[in-house]
Design goal:
Layout: H1 2-9, H2 11-15, H3 27-60, H4 75-100, E1 104-107, E2 110-116, E3 119-123, H5 128-158, H6 166-176, H7 186-203, H8 209-230, H9 238-262, H10 270-302, H11 307-319, E4 333-341, E5 346-354, H12 360-376, H13 381-401, H14 430-447, E6 460-464, E7 470-474, E8 480-481
Antiparallel strand pairs: 1-2, 2-3, 4-5, 6-7, 7-8
Length: 487
């Protein structure tokens, strides 16, 4: 199980592994050659990526670092992102190779000399192994195992107050995206966690199976406590915290289950061991499937404007049968609306429970009318100004259309009724104007021109959601609401 997961987490080691293609040399010679190759890979990657992006900029005639706007990504930015991604995936492999130089153990009953794990004919810390251990192994540990996480921390610390800038997010967002602002450095903590696991895998066999299992369980418990106490993820991304803690707990459970297979068991417990084996496999497979599902769903949400994805979603929705709502049914349905919050740059979900999705818009309009009617009776200075403006708008609209303003009232109660309305007959009192304003305020606020738009209080803006309905957003407090703001 750990070998299968290791093949995924250290993919670079398996891609660059030349063991199967090299013949005619000893295992120790091949091991030392690989150590040199892995030590030179990061700087070689840096030079190759730099040369490729420089050549691309020269061929396309694009400036290397000139930025037209704040959100423009230059060729230099793309070069830094490419280098960060490749080193991020190569780092676990480089880490394992660096510690592998010091992986030695005793052979047989001879306790005077240790031999290299890669080749039991090569004595450790003698001859060429001592030279390679100092100049290759120690340098990799200093430069890669400790240097790269420290370098990432330095860059993040320098830009700790500029994490929301487009340039910083584009270049180094791989290392701090999803974390809280105060926990921008948490990826370095994750790097130390990976290092502890790699050290266990390299030096653990020297301790023996029983001792290695106890130490591994202790290390996993420490990692879980650090993750729970630190709680580095953004409150809106608690799912990531849950997945992270669950992954470590599953590793702990898998290691703990190994005790039952290591110690001898009677034949009567064979069925229990088979059940435990199936349980461990099912838990690991289910967790991997859920991780893949979460990753794919997050990728779909991030790329929801993609043309191919829109076609797939439209085909899926067209295949769904149309459900009919039974009359008298008391079952309530949950409808989720996505409202774009301009200050956060993310979608905020507002859930409203309704008896059926078909009556949602009618109830919303009724609620708006009631809210507007209440607001009409509590006038402030701004509302009085807005009320006067609405009176002029309504009067101008009815004059242009030559509509009988008093058509909504009883003819017997309208002494001015004479068929059509002129400028002389359009003399209505405040109460009637308030009634007209009450009936027309929604249409004017949603369908009017720029000149007819309602004047909002300070710090409020008018926006539209996915259904085309108007809602209001406060720039200072980040409050969103469908009702017209009063203050």
């Amino acid at each position: 199980m750990f070998d299968f997961q290791g093949a995924i987490s250290t993919a670079g080691e398996h891609i660059l592994n030349p063991d199967c293609s090299v013949r005619g040399i000893s295992a120790a010679d091949l091991f030392f050659a690989k150590q040199i190759a892995y030590a030179l890979t990061p700087p070689a990657l840096g030079l190759i990526i730099f040369a490729l992006w420089r050549t691309y900029a020269a061929c396309r005639g694009i400036s290397w670092s000139d930025r037209a706007t704040v959100s423009t990504h230059t060729i230099k930015d793309k070069m830094i992102v490419t280098l960060c991604v490749l080193l991020y995936f190569f780092w676990p492999t480089s880490l394992k190779q660096a510690f592998g130089m010091f992986s030695c153990r005793f052979v047989g009953s001879n306790r005077d000399k240790m031999y290299l794990m890669a080749d039991f004919e090569e004595p450790c810390f003698e001859g060429r192994h001592a030279i390679y251990a100092i100049f290759v192994g120690a340098s990799q540990i200093i430069l890669y195992a400790l240097g790269l996480p420290l370098l990432v921390f330095v860059f993040l610390w320098r830009h700790r107050n500029e994490l929301n800038k487009p340039v910083v997010r584009f270049r180094y967002g791989l290392f701090f995206a999803g974390f809280r602002k105060k926990k921008y450095y948490w990826e370095c903590i994750v790097a130390l966690r990976k290092e502890s696991t790699v050290i266990l895998a390299v030096f653990g066999p020297q301790l023996g199976v029983a001792m290695l299992a106890h130490v591994a369980l202790f290390v996993f418990i420490i990692q879980i406590l650090i993750q729970l106490i630190g709680h580095p993820y953004d409150p809106l991304l608690t799912k990531l915290q849950m997945l992270d803690v669950t992954s470590i707990c599953i590793c702990w459970f898998t290691m703990w289950s190994g005790f039952f297979f290591y110690s001898p068991r009677p034949e009567s417990q064979k069925s229990a061991l088979i059940f435990l084996t199936m349980l461990v496999v099912l838990i690991n497979v289910a967790h991997m499937v859920y991780l893949l599902y979460s990753m794919c769903s997050a990728a779909c949400i991030e790329n929801q404007d993609n043309v191919v994805l829109k076609k797939i979603l439209s085909q899926r929705n067209s295949m769904k049968p149309l459900g009919s709502v039974k009359q008298g049914s008391k079952r309530k349905m949950l409808k989720t609306r996505h409202i774009q919050n301009p200050s956060l740059g993310i979608g905020i979900e507002m859930a409203s429970i309704n008896e059926s999705s078909t009556t949602q818009k009618k109830k919303t309009k009724k609620r708006r009318r009631k809210t507007d009617q209440i607001q009409l009776h509590t006038k402030s200075a701004a509302q009085t100004k807005r009320s006067d403006r609405l009176k002029d708008v309504i009067r101008r609209q009815h004059l242009e259309k030559n509509v009988d303003v008093f058509g909504m009232y009883d003819v017997g109660c309208n002494p001015l009724y004479a068929g059509s309305v002129t400028n002389e007959t359009l003399e209505i009192d405040n109460n009637e104007t308030e009634t007209l304003q009450m009936n027309s305020i929604i249409n004017i606020s949603t369908n009017g021109t720029d000149n007819d738009k309602i004047e909002l209080p300070p710090d409020w803006e008018e926006l539209k959601d996915e259904d085309g309905d108007i809602y209001y957003w406060n720039v200072e407090t980040n409050v969103t609401q469908y009702e017209i703001p009063i203050e």
